[in-house]
Amino acid sequence: MSKKAIGIDIGGTGIKGALVDTKHGTLLSERLRYETLEGGTPKAIAKTLKDLISNLPGSAGLPVGICFPAVVQYGRTMSAANVSKEWIGFDADSMFEAELGREVHVLNDADAAGIAEVKFGAARGQRGLTIVSTLGTGIGTALMFNGKLIPNSELGHLQIDGVDYESKAAYSAKQRENLSWEEWAKRLQKYYSHLEALLTPDLFIVGGGVSKEHENFLPLLKLKTPIIPAENRNSAGILGAAHYAKKHATD
Ligand code: BGC
Fold first, then answer.
1. How much distance in Å is there from the Cα of 190 to the middle of ligand 1?
2. How far is ligand 1, taken at its centre, from the CA of residue 79, in Å?
3. Helix (H) or strand (E) holding 143
4. What atom in ligand 1 is closest to the CA of residue 110?
5. Closest CA to 223 of 209, 241, 245, 206
6. Is 148 helix (H, G, I), strand (E, B) or coil?
7. How far apart are CA 18 and CA 165, in angstroms?
8. Alpha carbon distance 156, 47 (integer Å)
9. Strand, coil or helix: what is 6?
10. Closest ligand 1 atom to 71 CA
11. 133, β-bridge pairs
């Protein structure tokens, strides 16, 4: 049986997609990237996805997995921290299925990265609680217990010092405030210590584009829990979403 699906990663600044071998966690096509148009409304994104998929040779009829930076419950997007508010309470699975004419499964972006790490990356075979976090525009988290996802953890929004802490510790905060690695690491220290005190994980995995520079900040953190970089970086969302779609496909 063919183990192929399309993986799409929708972010605040761009939409990436590729054809994926969901057994081995490899890309079977080039990774296409499009800008997120017109404030990232559902209509604008559906149009972009149609274009993107039509440019993926050999993808006809394959299921589509889409990861998205919001809470996603049973295919409905329920929040919108860094995207258009039109997504709140929106039946994304049904809209994309109608627009793309095939089976679609939508899930949270950090949850997709968590699945990618368990299936094809740094959390393979890991027992107990692994917290996969992604440091980007926001902070995404995935709780993986004995390899199984507990969805929609949204721990990037922990309140620390009276603020939603993703506004302080996401990679976008480092860029916005021009923080040095050391200054940013102090905030990460506070964030991961807090997570550690609340959840006693067995392993932290840090993903997001900046994790390729992990040597600049992970060694500065002092935690009881091992903290390691993700193995899947720019393609984590695509791989996890495609795996999720294949797993939930009806045929
Ligand atoms: C959103 C999460 C998302 C994370 C990373 C947060 O602002 O609330 O749903 O996983 O950003 O994109």
1. 19
2. 9
3. strand 139-145
4. 10
5. 206
6. strand
7. 32
8. 30
9. strand
10. 9
11. 141, 206
**pLDDT tens profile 166-209:** 999 999 999 999 999 999 999 999 999 999 999 999 999 999 99
Instruction: Tell me the pLDDT tens digit for each residue of 14-68.
Output: 899 999 999 999 999 999 999 876 678 898 899 999 999 999 999 899 999 999 9
Asked whether 167 lines ligand 1 (CB < 6 A), one says no
What separation, in Å, do the N-terminal and C-terminal C-alpha atoms of the chain show? Answer: 11
The answer to whether 238 and 20 have CB atoms below 8 angstroms apart is yes
pTM: 0.96
Of the candidates 62, 52, 73, 68, the one whose C-alpha atom is nearest the C-alpha of residue 104 is 62
Question: How does the average pLDDT of the chain come out, rounded?
Answer: 95
Query: How far apart, in whole angstroms, are the C-alpha atoms of residue 36 and residue 14?
Result: 5
Q: Which residues pair with 67 in a beta bridge?
A: 9, 107
d(CA 30, CA 17) in angstroms, rounded, equals: 9
* Ligand 1 atom having least distance to the Cα of 152: 9
Q: Please state the φ and ψ torsions of residue 107, each to the nearest 5 degrees.
A: -145, 170
As a whole number of angstroms, the longest Cα–Cα distance in the chain is: 52
3-state helix, strand, coil in the chain (%, to 5): 40, 25, 35
